[in-house]
Design brief:
The protein has 157 residues and is an all-alpha fold. 42% of the residues lie in helices and 0% in strands. It is built from six helices and no strands.
Length: 157
Amino acid sequence: MTHPRTFSPSAAAASYYAWRDRAPSERERADQGLVAVITQVYERLRGNPGVRRVHAELITLGHPVSPKRVWWLMKAAGLQGRHPKPWKRTAIAGQAPVPAPDLIGRDFTAEAVDQRWCGDIERHEAPVRREALRPEGGVRPSRRAVAAAWWKLSAVD
């Protein structure tokens, strides 16, 4: 029910009292029934479902309502879903870091192809800049165009 101060000051007092004493509309009666169903669903799901889960349950039960209406009714009924922490710790550090095992004994020589695979973190500067590939007043070149130009220039060396 709307507070009387939300009515326009220019409205007649009789219109306010007529509005206040009227019977609930069809929508208000439907909302009361939906709040009862939402409360049952909320309690059945251990008191922590959010709007999306309650909406899915209402659809399953045969109540075609929009998620926004479910949100509005849950807010009016004082029902709130559980909010997870914004940050979740995914790894717990040990006492000391574990060194990676040296499986090849620091011997990087190979007698044939595909016997030893190893990598090194190294930075390679591209011999060409994106701006050099851009035509006058043209669009920015794609990564594929930059990579193709880089391979062409590196093959010459």
